[in-house]
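The instructor's notes for this session suggest beginning with a concrete chain rather than abstract definitions. Hand out the sequence below and ask the class to guess, before any prediction is shown, which regions might be ordered.
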Amino acid sequence: MVATPREGYDLNLIASALDNIKRAVQSDGKVAIQDAGSFTDLKTLIASAVKLGPQLPISVRRNIIHEAVYAVIRQSGISSQSILDEINKTVISYYKRRESKYELVTSISIGRNRHVKNATIAGCLIRFSDGMSKQFREARQSLLDDVKHSVLGELPTEYRLVKVRVSAKSELEAWDRAIDAIDLLRAFWNLALNRRSHMRISSGKRKPVNRFVLGPIHTLHKTTGELATEQWWYQPEYQGPVSAYDPGDIGAEKMFQYADYARERLKSSGYADHLVTCLLRYVRALDTPDWEDSYLRLWGGLEQLTNTGLSDNYKVTIRRASSLWKDRKYDQQILTHLRDYRNNAVHARVGNQDIETYMYQLKRHVEALIHFHLVNRFRLRTIAEAAEFMDQTDDSEELDKKMRILKAAKAFR
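After discussion, reveal the predicted structure:
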């Protein structure tokens, strides 16, 4: 893995700024900084300006870069190359670490009477239970007593406990991998239910679209139950628990079957990593009762699922997203009105009494695209191929003409 500068950033300029705020290295090895605020800015700036491979979770990559910045600031004559060299050295050191086993403990809003079998996703073992051992319970409670003051709403009492076992080189990596695993499983469950619901009209307190959401607090433990770190993770936007949901025997069977089917389809996908990112984005977008925020996140998912690049305009997104629908021209009108609302919401953060309707209209398109990519009946090998497929006209005569030309070109070549 080699660290390289990202396009659009001047790492030489950033290195010079870092060198300018360093005053001296003290006898105890600490570095005297002239401006702590600028140093914080520069740490985060370098994390954005340097590109590392996607193998490591984002939080781990950023932590590695921050650690490297603390090391490089002790050097004399800081340069862009010295920053890159120190980051690469830190990455190599990280990969030499031995993996340890961890247990992430959280909770999920599924009915306690519903049997849920264990699942292994992305190398993580996910187990559901109604309780935990004394060691886990006491260690977790010691943090809950502190963190509950940071959570705005009441803590859930009816959620099912979840333990995710993961092997990782650090606590941050364990946290990222475990949360991604349980969220991917939730994505399958919620997608199975959400796809059946094309609209909703609510009154009173807003609630998220997803039936299965995580509890607001997550703790990381060693396999013996003691805390692996005094750090905890919580959801700042949490407002209170949703009702624990049980889909019933028939509903649960269909939901679990769809989840198994989706997992198998994902394994055979040529662009599984891209789809996992989209699925995580989808499920997290619909976890919040802030529907405006859900809407903006869903639009980002729509762009990702249509492989809309930064240089593309909204017409590309609309053309590709509408290609899955029978009445393509009409659906382009729906997507145009959704795009107009998205632009207004981004620029002015305007509210709208119809936001729930808009959110469900957009949700419907995102879910159709996810299902299209998972099923992949035409065996498209990359997200770029899928985008090219969606770009094709729905005019049969035009398609016939293209095929004649391509066949002639192949024969000639």
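Then share the key points. Residues 110 and 125 are 18 Å apart (CA to CA). The two ends are 40 Å apart (CA to CA).
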